[in-house]
Amino acid sequence: MTFPQVLDRRLPLAVAGSAALIALALSTAHAADADTPVGLGTAERFAVLAGAGITNTGPTFIQGDIGSFPTTDQTITGVTLDGTNQFGNAVTQQAKTDLVAAYNEAAGALPPTSVETELGGKTLVGGVYKAATELGLTGTLTLDGGRNDGMPSDKVFIFQAGTTLITEVDSEVVLTGGAQACNVFWQVGSAATFKTRTEFVGTVMAYTEAITAQTGATFVGRLLARDSAVTLDSNTITRPTCAPDEGGDDGADGGDDTGGDDGTDGTDGTDGTDGTDGTDGTDGGGGTGGAGDGSDDGGGTDGTNAGGADRTSGGGAGTSDGSSSTGTSDGSTSSSGTLPDAGGSSLWLLAAGLGTLMAGSVLMWGRRARGRHSS
What we know:
Layout: H1 3-29, E1 46-57, E2 60-63, E3 65-75, E4 79-82, H2 90-107, E5 112-114, E6 123-125, E7 127-131, E8 135-137, E9 140-144, E10 157-161, E11 165-167, E12 172-176, E13 184-188, E14 192-194, E15 199-206, E16 211-213, E17 218-225, E18 230-233, E19 236-238, E20 326-327, E21 333-334, H3 345-374
Parallel strand pairs: 1-3, 1-17, 1-18, 2-4, 2-19, 5-7, 6-9, 7-10, 8-11, 9-12, 10-13, 11-14, 13-15, 14-16, 15-17, 16-18, 17-19
Antiparallel strand pairs: 20-21
Helix pairs in contact: 1-3
């Protein structure tokens, strides 16, 4: 068999293999959806949001905004509100629009893992969990964020219930491994009912029927009803907020007019070194002009002072992962960035597919070149 004939047979295989690898890479990339919190938009500020009114019995504490639209009726005697009652105003109306988008996003989250109706007694890691009909909780459901260093986790938990969500008396959702209530979402096709003394976690988004919280049920989360009412009875509802998934804030810029004070709140950086001596610097007390130290705990290295003048922002900002930035001669800081996680193995598959496709093109070019030479 001649070389051109070999090329004729292998080139289609190379092209087909490339297409398959690229398709596989793109399909694998969808798994990233499970790591993305549901976007609530302006509904994020609400602890209770309804479509057909809010009713309360007994002493209830709510941290966060409340509102209802299009039915704006509220019977909330006994509610202590640490937030704003938006009633049915424009803020509530926009939040209801955003709730529809959030509900649809949660309902379409990928890739789902099928679960049994009963969640009690289970320990689940971050991901999307789907029941074709109802979800129920008797006893304890544990959500594990996967960390053992005492730091908050960014793992996301999305539950999709085709119909109802019902918890039994004294049931609870427990967070471990740094899991955070702000990253837990419950998409419920019809009604959600939380029986007496339930301790629940996460943002509940119910579609066609009411959300009912029985006596003494508590929530670190939100009760958001798209079309129906929210009924409360001596409850505590605290709107969750997320902590960053790494410890420590950025160090503040050091440096006053004198060579710079220590930066604050950095983590695990190295102490800055003194700046180089300048000549004829101004405001530097004899032209020493060294930049100030970075933060004691997380400051970056000092910038040098080319002109001898004192510089502000001498210490570079400490970063949350303990890295540091280097000050420049004008007192600014630069930092090294990291590429976002774009799917790991998916990128390798995509690169392999493109490489194979390019190899096939080179082989085709070689065949044509040999054909012209022989002719």
